């Protein structure tokens, strides 16, 4: 293979404490989830049983590897997962990412331009730091369903494992250390459909029922799924295990997929949302219910223990904006 076609991120870096890390430009792994067919609250996680010759071999971890220059962590993690597990890059729905390991004082790597190595120096006497911070990024992603895998030479086995059972495997030490913070909380999601529909400027007011049908179809195709935390959070995010949509007014003529729990409001939609969310809270407990709305008045009426996410943010995080 021509050098120009090879990735330039492969290689070890050595920090001030003489510890080695793989990936000249850092590394990334894909924390890939898919719904479990018999327990929506306990999603499946794709684990890789690493070949003995690899670093920390004969342990279980996430598929992933070195990031190439000019490549984002998400791109690298998806590419590596295709190479190591055969999961198509286009099937992966990336939800977010978090740096889960750092090492400072790493010598700045040289990048390859064609067949030449470039050390990153600047012209005209300008200075550039000779050291960087090496990072490992965990990329949160999911699939609509677990896909078949094809292992390459770096894997003994690939296996879809229930999230609740991951800790019982002989995990790579670095992965074992961060896994508790990466676990997702299963939540029951209650969607204020009228408010979410109103956040879209697509002409929905011309055909409320028709556009509601399209919205519900989009939601059904997206859930169950992961809602990853922001990059600064210590929590693992939420897994939307059950989604209830509250529909009101003319939108009640809309069609909805069977995978969604649908409640048609007999009166005011906000009253029904409060009732449904309160019932979910009594069943699931505090911290396990999420209401999707940007209506401040409705937010103020919700009981304590219920989380709220704005409609626009919800659509963006599901890739539906």
Automatic annotation (TrEMBL):
InterPro entries the record matches: Nudix_hydrolase (IPR020476), NUDIX_hydrolase-like_dom_sf (IPR015797), NUDIX_hydrolase_CS (IPR020084), NUDIX_hydrolase_dom (IPR000086)
Co-factor requirement: Mg(2+)
Residue ranges annotated for the Nudix hydrolase domain, each copy included: 23-186
Keywords, sorted A to Z: Hydrolase
Annotated family: Belongs to the Nudix hydrolase family.
Protein species of origin: Dietzia timorensis
Name of this chain's protein: Putative 8-oxo-dGTP diphosphatase 3
Domain of life of the source: Bacteria
GO MF assignments: hydrolase activity
